[in-house]
Design a protein that fits this description.
The complex is a heterodimer of chains A (about 90) and B (about 180). Chain A is of the alpha+beta class and about 90 residues long. Chain A is about 20% helix and about 25% strand. In chain A, a hairpin with a 2-residue loop joins strand 3 and strand 4. Classes of the chains: A alpha+beta (about 90), B alpha/beta (about 180).
Chain lengths: ~90, ~180
């Protein structure tokens, strides 16, 4: 099982839990599994084409998946996945 | 059995409606110092605490000029277009928190049992009011958004807001 850290904006979908467990051997599989247990999560993470939304950062342990293999990044038991929406703005 | 004195859900609801944000003076002073240090560029960071009382500050690097993801985030949200600006000018009008530093800050909050309470940034040449860009990119409805304005350099203005579903409302805060 993979531990997934859920940011506060997505916790309404996980009944307030900041940490959930998911099954899968890649980020793609984890997203599919999470969407089954917490319907609606995929839509918040991916766009209509299935690509990760630009303001969503996903980390495996301390590594940004943008610098690994994106959604195809492989996972092994004990890995921790963190979802961190970007924080940005301007005048 | 004791009679039930409070309806827990109603209390929670009331609490959400009248949030009491408390920020230590020392942290507010450091927010202004942070803004002045980076002027003319925007500063940004996070404040964490418990039950609305801030106890910890995390200065986060504004990576808007350096992280190529920033331009795409702004484009996707259909807000301020950054791509046409020279990289150095981007940080004068926008901020994009370094994701890696955010990850470290959130880890520290978990370890200290704190929660994200305030998201702050500075406006170096405009009032302390959320811009369309700020509103379009506000993905954290549970955190208050604090803006330090240096429009009047000798008298910095600090204001806080809730931004939920693109609706902005003032958030009162108490200095402690």
């Amino acid at each position: 099982m993979i531990k997934v850290r859920i940011p506060t904006p997505l916790r309404p979908l996980t009944k307030g839990q900041g940490e959930v467990e998911a099954k899968g051997s890649s980020i793609e599989e984890i997203i599919t599994n999470l969407d089954q247990t917490h319907p609606g999560l995929r839509g918040r993470l991916c766009d209509e084409k299935g690509e990760l939304r630009r303001f969503v950062n996903i980390y495996v342990n301390e590594e940004d998946i943008r610098f690994l293999k994106g959604k195809e990044t492989a996972l092994k038991d004990g890995d921790e996945v963190s979802i961190v929406p970007a924080i940005a703005g301007g005048r | 059995m004791k009679p039930r004195l409070y309806d827990f859900q109603t209390l929670r609801l009331l609490d959400k409606m009248t949030p009491s944000l408390k920020i230590p003076r020392q942290i507010l002073e450091d927010l202004v110092a942070h803004a002045r240090e980076l002027d003319p560029f925007e500063c940004c960071g996070l404040l964490a605490g418990a039950d609305g009382t801030v106890t910890r500050q995390y200065r986060i690097t504004n990576q808007v000029a350096k992280d190529p993801q920033a331009v795409t985030v702004f484009n996707e949200a259909n807000v301020k277009q950054l791509g046409h600006l020279p990289e150095t000018a981007r940080a004068e009008v926008a901020y994009f928190m370094d994701p890696k530093e955010m990850l470290a800050a959130f880890k520290d909050m978990r370890e200290q049992r704190l929660e994200l309470t305030v998201i702050y940034h500075s406006h170096t040449h405009s009032p302390a009011y959320p811009s369309m860009t700020d509103v379009g990119l506000a993905y954290y409805p549970d955190a208050a958004y604090l803006i330090v304005s240096l429009e009047n350099m000798s008298q910095p203005d600090i204001r806080t807001y809730w931004i939920k579903d693109r609706q902005v409302s003032p958030a009162e805060f108490q200095v402690i």
